[in-house]
Design a protein that fits this description.
disordered C terminus; single chain; disordered N terminus; globular
Length: 229
């Protein structure tokens, strides 16, 4: 029988703990916070890469977890899932690079072929519209959104958060998330000539109605995060 030294646990044992439990224990045993990095570093890196490019993603990911570690004593332990908190930190860090993000999307709008780390919603929109330039058009449309509307859209699209989680990440009411997402979707449809990249995957089905005011909000299949190279 192998006896583990105090404070050392297997990955399987760590995985059985909620994020909140890991954070709580890390307040006295800081090294345990590494479990949170193991769980979410890849997802945070993908989100950062899609927003600011792969060159900036590594630094943004590192800064996200450094900030989270420094703020772990203030974490609300009633929230078992730390993803909204982490993606909220990343989004706040992205806000320091608004001009770079807008320039990135404008540059992508001029790229003739699909590129790595880009939005999966564009693939669906291209199939439904029968157009080869939707990736470019969607990039241009995203660059035209205000920062607060873009944050909501991309937290749902690329961080795979539901409305309540996006509200937690941004520190705003759920109703504000719904309102911003509704406006952003309208502007994306307008920019894409009526094609709705946030609608149902089956073009024969009608678009989702406005989100209900209560209960867990339903995310469009086309807005779920997909693996990218």
């Amino acid at each position: 029988m192998t006896v583990e030294p105090p404070g050392v646990r297997t990955r399987d044992a760590d995985r059985e703990e909620t994020d909140a439990q890991v954070i709580e224990r890390s307040r006295d045993e800081p090294e345990l916070f590494a479990a949170l990095f193991d769980r979410y570093a890849d997802a945070v890196h993908r989100y950062a890469a899609r927003r600011l490019g792969p060159e900036a993603a590594e630094d943004l990911m590192a800064e996200t977890f450094t900030t989270a570690f420094q703020r772990r004593h203030a974490y609300d332990l009633s929230r078992a899932d730390a993803r909204p908190w982490l993606f909220g930190i990343t989004t706040n860090l992205v806000s320091r690079h608004r001009r770079s993000e807008a320039r990135r999307f404008k540059a992508l709008a001029r790229v003739p072929e699909p590129v790595e780390h880009e939005e999966p919603v564009a693939d669906l929109a291209a199939a439904r519209a029968g157009a080869t330039g939707v990736r470019r058009e969607l990039a241009a449309a995203l660059s035209g959104l205000s920062a607060r509307h873009r944050d909501v859209v991309l937290l749902v699209a690329w961080a795979d958060l539901d409305y309540e989680e996006a509200a937690q990440a941004l520190g705003v009411p759920v109703g504000t998330v719904r309102s911003r997402l509704h406006r952003a979707r309208g502007r994306l449809r307008e920019a894409l000539g009526g094609c709705d990249p946030t609608g149902p995957a089956d073009p024969g089905r009608p678009a989702d109605p406005a989100p209900a005011r209560s209960g867990r909000s339903r995310r469009s299949d086309s807005f779920r995060e997909a693996d990218t190279p």
